Amino acid sequence: MSIFPTLADLTAQQVSSLAIPLAAAMALAAAVVIGVFKPRTILGPQRLSPGESPRVIAGTLGFAMGAWALSLIMLGAAHQRLLDKHHEPPDSPLSGPETVIFGIIMDTAVLAAALAATRIRPGGIRRLGLNLGRFPLGFLGGIFAIAIVLPLIDCVGGLTELALKWLHQSPPPHDLLQILNAHPAPWLRAADIIAACVLAPLAEEMFFRGLLQTMLRYFLNRPWAAVLLTAGAFAIVHKWWTWPEIFFLGVSLGYVYERTGNLWMTVTMHALFNLTSIWLFVHFG
């Protein structure tokens, strides 16, 4: 008789605790095989035309930030008008529908501004890797890449959860996840998922990888520095207790973008990460 337990003897939690490290080890092995840790594999295609200054990207980034700031001011004013209309305290938080709709408006504003400014550059959309001809390969490559990254992010998340328990911290889930947990109307549920899995990945990847990382890459002339700084900025705009996971995700997205120059690949990875997070939260809490 074997002294080792069979799968039938293990609980679901024990199987999960064994599967996650195994999947992470396989993911690391796959990363080694495709050359992730070789220093020069990050050197992908150029994203500026010969002789083009990175100041052009800086201007586009500033235009997108201006659109974000303007939409934030306008939506804040709209929120205050709604509070006044319903005689609610001026410091009342956003309602569920406001959170989703305002997020959609802000993401749309940033994406539209970034795309409009990028299209002014000759071949700008193509050079940033967002032309439609690159979508099929980007989509398939994003599925492959996130399959490698997700088990590693899960390990980072597990370590973060242990650290938070040790610090006696129990942070709430993301605002959009809390809305889904409140059994919203079907239209709000659909809008929530679209915001998290379509608009947010498009807007954030265009802003962070397409513009910020590209600008830093050419100003600093150090791809890895650009990847790490952009990942840090990407993490900071999320809730503090998610910083380790989001930073690791940001580094992964940054590496993939530098190596391939295909923004559709990072959009797909980002969308599938958000979709997986939603599915896990809805089914397991």
Tell me what the structure shows.
With 285 residues, the chain is an all-alpha fold. The protein has one domain (30-284). The protein is built from ten helices and no strands. The longest helix has 35 residues, at 186-220. The protein starts with 11 loop residues before the first helix and ends with a helix.
Query: How many β-strand runs?
Result: 0
Low-confidence stretches: 1-7
Question: Termini separation (Å)?
Answer: 39 Å
β-strand percent reads under 5%
Order of helices and strands: HHHHHHHHHH
**Global Rg:** 21 Å
Count of runs of 4 or more consecutive helical residues? 10
Category by helix and strand content: mainly alpha
Overall geometry:
globular
Return the domain count: 1
Assembly classification: single chain
Q: How are the elements arranged and paired?
A:
Blueprint: H1 12-33, H2 55-85, H3 96-120, H4 124-127, H5 135-166, H6 175-181, H7 186-220, H8 223-236, H9 243-260, H10 263-284
Helix pairs in contact: 1-5, 2-3, 2-7, 3-7, 5-9, 5-10, 7-8, 7-10, 8-9, 9-10
Annotation keywords:
about 280 residues, 10 helices, mainly alpha
Task: Give a short overview.
This protein has 285 residues and is an all-alpha fold. It has 10 helices and no strands.
